[in-house]
């Protein structure tokens, strides 16, 4: 799985996550190092993520609330509204259009310029 964040003027590094993303992994490897400090430095910005269980777990909601992170309410089953889904589609097309698309994670990671967490 690949995680990344975008806004009008900013983007995060791409992070390749081995296995499934649970609430603890999301908090420790994504939110803490990449999101929370950025949002605290930009209090006018709001976090938007979908309704995946790793995002909506009670521990996650409490974690974000304790750090005064504003979260945009998100309708269920609405991937077309999510900007990042369009970014993933474009990225997927570019990787698949390569003369020899990567077949395994290390090659894909190099192709994406991401890092493995």
From TrEMBL:
<dbReference type="Pfam" id="PF13358">
    <property type="entry name" value="DDE_3"/>
</dbReference>
<protein>
    <recommendedName>
        <fullName>Tc1-like transposase DDE domain-containing protein</fullName>
    </recommendedName>
</protein>
<dbReference type="InterPro" id="IPR038717">
    <property type="entry name" value="Tc1-like_DDE_dom"/>
</dbReference>
<dbReference type="GO" id="GO:0003676">
    <property type="term" value="F:nucleic acid binding"/>
</dbReference>
<dbReference type="InterPro" id="IPR036397">
    <property type="entry name" value="RNaseH_sf"/>
</dbReference>
<feature type="domain" description="Tc1-like transposase DDE">
    <location>
        <begin position="3"/>
        <end position="100"/>
    </location>
</feature>
């Amino acid at each position: 799985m690949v995680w990344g964040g975008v806004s009008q003027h900013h983007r995060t590094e791409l992070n390749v996550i081995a296995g499934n993303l649970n609430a603890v992994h999301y908090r420790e490897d994504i939110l803490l190092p990449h999101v929370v400090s950025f949002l605290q430095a930009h209090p006018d910005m709001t976090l938007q993520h979908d309704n995946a269980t790793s995002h909506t777990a009670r521990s996650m909601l409490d974690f974000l609330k304790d750090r005064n992170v504003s979260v945009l309410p998100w309708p269920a089953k609405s991937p077309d509204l999510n900007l990042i889904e369009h970014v993933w589609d474009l990225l997927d097309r570019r990787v698949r259009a390569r003369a020899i698309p990567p077949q395994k994670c290390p090659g894909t990671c190099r192709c994406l310029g991401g890092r493995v967490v």
